[in-house]
Amino acid sequence: MKKFMKIIVGLALEESIRKLEFNPQLNDVYVQLNALYSVPNRGKIRSLHNDLVGSSNANFREIGFWLEPLITVSKPTIDWRDLVIEMQETELQLFNIFYLLEVSRERRHEINDLREWFNSIGSSVNYIRQDDWIHAKIHASKAFEFSLSNSIETMRKDEHLSGAIDAFRKETKKYFEQVKTFPVRIEIPEDRFDAIIEIQEVLVELVKELYLHRPDRVLSDVILYPIEKLGVAMHYLMDPKLTIEGANYELGCACEHFRRKIGNIKDVEKKKWANHLYKRIEFLFSQLPVKPWPMRGFGEPGVESRFED
Q: Which of 225, 227, 234, 226 is closest to 196 using CA atoms?
């Protein structure tokens, strides 16, 4: 269970790192998650989750949702199919308002947040249908956030729109509260835990370097592609329907890129750091089963991954 906890905390930690650059108020959250990644503690995870999900800031809430596979939430008050129908009705009504305002040239500058509002509701619906409740909650949270934006408040001052805006705000808040009650389940095969953690530890180090330390162009070129490939490899390993061989192909792509690019790093300490991470991934690549792919360009950035969202 400790390994599963570490993996889930790592997902939240990565999310916090990616958001921290433009949201310095998340620094304390990052520090707490970084500590919990080293030493997972269920009680502290639960407490942090409750603080994050209860925040008025959407960025805090989104990080909290990544911890939900470790949290027992309240029982849903509505069948998800009925919820989807209601959300789609609101999405359509908001789109109709958007369309009417879009044809009015003088109002076009006001409607970006309105577009994001109904698009976020639609995205949440799509993720509900896929049984992906983390992203369903994230997008329901975004919809709620956009519904309260300054531009929507300006739009609300129009006497022809105020009633509709108030009603749809109320509905969006209700959907968000209802979506939050659904449990998040991630079923990861236990025999993949060690490989996932090894990849994740390297991935977290690379993401920290990219987002927190502002690397130069040379180092960025070294680490950007492996970040993508390691993320895809984790997706493969976390999904029992996908193969370990598929994940290892992605590791091979990352290794080959590292091998070709590390020599470009001039800073001795950075080169040593990158080479250490490369050796970790190279060793894991050598240990996992390999399925040869009948295509040219192994490891080239132009070769797309086999993982499809």
A: 234
